[in-house]
Amino acid sequence: MEPHLPLAGVRVIDLTTFLSGPMATHTLGELGADVIKVEPPDGDPTRAGSRDGQTPFWLALHRDRRSVVLDLKRPAGGAALRDLVAASDVLIENFRPGVTARLGITDGDLRPLNPRLVYCSLTGYGTGHAAADQPATDGPIQAFTGAVALRGSPIPLTVGDLSGAAHAATAICAALYARQQTGRGCHIELSLAECLLQWLTVGDRGGTLAPPTTLVLTAADGARVLVQTPMHMRAKLLALVGEQDPRWSTVEGQRASLDEFVATMQAAFARRTAGEWVAALAAAGIPAAVVRTVEAALGDPCVATTDVGGETVVTSPFVVDGARRTATAAPPALGADTERVLRDVAGYDDARLAAARAGGAW
User: Fold this and answer.
1) Which of 65-79, 103-117, 223-237 has the lowest mean pLDDT?
2) Under a CB-based contact definition with an 8 Å cutoff, are residues 138 and 159 in contact?
């Protein structure tokens, strides 16, 4: 535990899989929470056969947590989960609607055990309507919400899952704050569709803010530079390259002659190197950056990284009173912490562990 972090001492039970839930609990862990990942006996399917959790995806997403195996389809496994919930602060799940009811682990089932529990449910489309039972992964969520229509194909980043994760982490923190005032937990329900639409609808789709033309231009050294010119930034770029065509002084003129404008900018950028252009653009206050790979970005000194299992990962982005999470641990092997967590969190002794194991809890 790192006591300087704001969620130090908060215990989170993570029943999620894929990306939305695990990314939410990853964020809570970076803020200091103790995350206990509960997996079925065969393990989370996104382990991709790596029971020791050494795939790049798993290393990046599931580090800094403990792994407990419980078979929630068996009474002994459900009983063990309830014992953990009774001593925890948060439970997050992203089962399809109806699954928690069949398992007997809904908010209504668990709240009598722990009135202070913050219970967070992530679904694809919410509950109580025709779309609720639709299988939901990131691609269909992008199609449903209009994200695919923006570019004709899915955005090559799982924005539906990530928007759900961001909203879940925020909501859980807010619920924990409210609990300090009331002494009671609550049930948070989020749909990935609504979370992603929150992001999509704040884009300036109507062009009322003179939307930026995003240019990707090749410099003299062959490197590409992305330049974005919202509102008054376009005039600054024109001045920087020495262009004074009056057609480009208005939004309407810029749109009508966009192809010619792009060609003119490309010709100008071919005269200097990417480094020279980025320096000149920064001096003029124009947002720009060299286009590079994720691996190159991880090597930049402005990004705090560390090595976990031979993979470079980003350390916690949260700097609190000048300090961030100072250590990170590789993901545990499947079920590595089952008995220790049941002892430490739920107070099991040797006899209760033996009885749970004999009953098929894991």
Assistant:
1) 223-237
2) yes
Q: Position 341: which residue type?
A: V
Task: Name the more confident of 53 and 323.
Answer: 323
Q: Which helix (H) or strand (E) holds 259?
A: helix 258-269
C-alpha span between 227 and 215 (Å, rounded): 5
DSSP tag of 183: S
pLDDT per position as a tens digit, 268-314? 999 999 999 999 999 999 999 999 999 999 999 999 999 998 999 99
- Strands of the chain (E only): list them: 11-14, 34-39, 66-69, 90-93, 118-123, 187-191, 213-218, 224-229, 288-290, 305-308, 311-314
DSSP character for 15?
A: -
Residue positions annotated with a catalytic role: 161
| Domains of the chain (ranges, CATH numbers) | 11-201+312-358 (3.40.50.10540), 213-295 (3.30.1540.10)
Please write the tens of the pLDDT for every residue from 117-127: 999 999 999 99
Q: Are 281 and 227 in contact (CB under 8 A)?
A: yes
